[in-house]
Amino acid sequence: MAELLVSAPAKINLHLEVLGLRPDGFHELAMVMQTLDLADQLSIRPTADGAISLTCDRDDLPTDGSNLVVKAGELLRARVGLPELGASIHLRKRIPIGAGLAGGSSNGAAALVGLNALWGCGFSSAQLHAMAAELGSDMPFCLEGGTQLCFGRGERLEPAGLGAAPALGVLLIKHPDSSVSTPWAYGRCQELRGDFYLQSEEEFEQRRQALRSGPLLAALRGEAPLPPLRNDLQPVVEPELASVREGLALLRQAEGALAVAMSGSGPSLFALFADPAGAEAAHQQLAADLAAAGFEAWCCRCIGSGVSLG
Ligand code: C5P
Which residues sit with their C-beta closer than 6 Å to ligand 1? Predict the structure, then answer.
């Protein structure tokens, strides 16, 4: 059978608020996530040898059973109950690794969608969503994509209801030598802020409601100027990583930047502009300084969907 191509786009957090700690040890979050047009690509060929094998064009990424692509394939195969199903998967990596851009989660979500189609499993999107949530907190968002409010561990999605993706331009930067472990960032957040976490479902719901009706969503609907962005993991990571401090300072110099923030648990950073041309102009303005400080940079657009076939 012919190979299937699946696009696995990155996300940024336009809002990441840590509300409290859940009985399962995860953090209760209130987030707004946005899919970008920076994407990895999976090419998948089905086999009937019971082996799910993964290769990647970057040799610093584990391709064994610890990779979410392989985990997604194994979970799907177990659920469909046909151990002879196999696949040979190649991953073209464009999203920086360990960056807070959900690259690994998006790859796993892309494997679920691609293998569901190739193996003819016939799982519904609700069933794929449930499997994605088992594999990782960001994975359901990666399946759906666009602009979504994400609650719970991150897996409870509410579309922002914008109609179309925001027309914003995004200048994204990351230092290739820096990466952040997500469990470390949340653990450190708990050490620093745990005594002040909200405790009750009523308080969590108040914060969710404040996000739904607040200035960020109004700005994304085009009804108000963009407010400063909030990422509660930024003050946790910033003191620890010089590259984050340096990158934020550089982005804050960009002409026309409407807001600057870290994405997820970092260390990738981004600035938002009124349109993609604004991001391109800022990229040119900052190119020499970014290169001198060793940053990689991408000009991106917001898109309205997550993983997609073809
Ligand atoms: O769900 P995922 O595997 O992406 O989470 C990675 C780690 O990040 C978790 O093991 C946990 O330490 C932390 N985390 C958290 N609360 C969340 C999401 C992630 O504490 N809502």
Answer: 26-27, 29, 136-138, 153-154, 182-183, 186
Fold of the domain spanning 169-301: Alpha-Beta Plaits (3.30.70)
> Within the chain, which residue ranges are assigned CATH 3.30.70.890?
169-301
Tokens matching residue 76: 């799907």
pLDDT tens string 186-195: 999 999 999 9
Pairing mode of beta strands 296-301, 169-174: antiparallel
Q: Measured in angstroms, how far is the CA atom of residue 26 from the centroid of ligand 1? A: 6
Distance of alpha carbon 302 from alpha carbon 232, whole angstroms: 22
For residue 274, the 8-state DSSP code is S
Structure tokens at 48: 């009937």
Q: Encode pLDDT of 207-233 as tens digits.
A: 999 999 999 999 999 999 999 999 999
| Catalytic annotation present for 195 | no
CATH number of 4-162: 3.30.230.10
138 is catalytic: yes
Global confidence as pTM: 0.97
Whole-angstrom Cα distance, residue 170 to residue 249? 16
- Outline which parts of the chain fall under CATH 3.30.230.10: 4-162
